[in-house]
Amino acid sequence: MRKAPYEPPAQSVFGQIVDAFLMLALVLVTLYLPLLLKLAGGGTTTRTFDNPTWETLGQNPTMAAQWEKLGFDPTSAAAIIGVKFDYSFSTVALVVTGVVIVGYFVAMIRWSDKEYRDVIAERFDDSGPAR
């Protein structure tokens, strides 16, 4: 006896529109919340140079030539070279992010267990060849 093909639950057009706006809102919150809570971007560190030369700025002759082609001398380039982005990160924030991502996928699999089992049974049932 062959099982009936899996039919996913039907969703109305209104439901699809609500889902689309909900996903858009979740993406915006996900992107902007860390910025609003000042959790993203470590900022910059600025190093000042007394009497800058290309050597003290860590520039080799080829690099210095390129700076000069752009119209910079060691003094004007020092303001750009001295600004570095802070790449430090929080281990706690990294672990929390990992736990949230893994938790999300575990929750999705648990909530969708019946649907997953129906689809797998339809495709890989032993009663006949796979389609």
State the main characteristics:
transmembrane, 56% helix, 131 residues, membrane, 3 domains, 5 helices, mainly alpha, two-stranded antiparallel ribbon, transmembrane helix, single chain
Provide structural commentary.
The protein has helices at 13-36, 61-69, 74-81, 91-111, 113-124, and strands at residues 44-46, 83-85. By secondary structure, it is mainly alpha-helical. A two-stranded antiparallel sheet has the order 1-2.
Would you kindly provide a brief summary of this structure?
This protein has 131 residues and is mainly α.
Low-pLDDT sequence parts: none
Main sheet overview: 2 strands, antiparallel
Radius of gyration computed on alpha carbons: 28 Å
Distance from N terminus to C terminus (CA atoms, Å) equals: 16 Å
Mean pLDDT: 87
From the structure provided, what is the oligomeric state, counting identical versus distinct chains? single chain
**Number of helical segments?**
5
Task: Summarize the amount of helix as a percent range.
Answer: 55-70%
- Structural class assignment: mainly alpha
Strand order of the largest sheet: 1-2
Number of strands: 2
What is the H/E order? Answer: HEHHEHH
- How many structurally independent domains? 3
Share of β-strand residues = under 5%
Shape: elongated
Transmembrane segments: 12-33, 87-107
Keywords: Membrane, Transmembrane, Transmembrane helix
